Write a sequence for this structure.
């Protein structure tokens, strides 16, 4: 049975934001999958474009390693998302509001973003991640 957009999205979020597991992130993509963060400037620590599961795995592992000093964690009670299906059954959009605790203010840091997923055979074939690039350094 094919995975639903919610299953694909939740698996991806758990692998990345929740556990920072580069292997699990990479495995959520097709072998030739593409990850893009079009708003990230060239040369930023966060990757702008990655092609292929192995490049995704390597680059995200390096990025997560740099982030070990970041003690912020997502607050699931304050965070939320809405998934929007499209007329194309292989495309869905995630509208996300995440609150990260650990910034010292007590309120956390709110991050809003949009992700566009194109899937094939239950895996991510292309993911475009639109967020404010200053949030990732």
């Amino acid at each position: 049975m094919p995975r639903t957009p919610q299953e694909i999205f939740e698996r991806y979020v758990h692998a990345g934001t929740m556990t920072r597991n580069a292997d699990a992130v990479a495995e959520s993509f097709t072998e030739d999958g593409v990850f893009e963060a079009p708003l990230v400037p060239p040369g930023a620590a966060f990757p702008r474009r990655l092609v292929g599961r192995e490049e995704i795995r390597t680059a995200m592992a390096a990025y997560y390693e740099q982030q070990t000093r970041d003690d912020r964690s997502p607050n699931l009670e304050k965070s939320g998302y809405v998934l929007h299906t499209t007329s194309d059954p292989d495309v869905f959009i995630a509208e996300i509001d995440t609150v990260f605790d650990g910034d010292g203010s007590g309120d956390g840091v709110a991050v809003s973003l949009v992700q566009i997923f194109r899937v094939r055979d239950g895996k991510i074939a292309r993911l475009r991640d639109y967020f404010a690039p200053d949030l990732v350094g």
